[in-house]
């Protein structure tokens, strides 16, 4: 069983300006994605929308043992990650197929495999 992260980048400013019917269309697309995942034996471990990138808190080492904390994302970009799915899957190829179909309905997707066999995997992270 592999674990995969489906990141949902989007141009936040444009997304916020979409009319309600476009948001409804997006919700129907997500509902279909959920059904397709379930039908394929893929399990959503966690999923959800994220607060706007302007509300992010970024942290970096300051070079002297401390931390620099700033409001906002690490980078200024037209697209920011606005949501995610963490998925357990017995069949990566089928999961990619489902993600391609999801993207074809208008969704932007970044698909990432989680590294396995390390101490800092999700179950071992604190």
From TrEMBL:
YCII-related domain location: 15-100
Family: Belongs to the YciI family.
Pfam families reported in the protein's UniProt record: YCII
Organism phylogeny: Bacteria, Bacillati, Actinomycetota, Actinomycetes, Micrococcales
Organism, as annotated: Phycicoccus sonneratiae
Stated name of the protein: YCII-related domain-containing protein
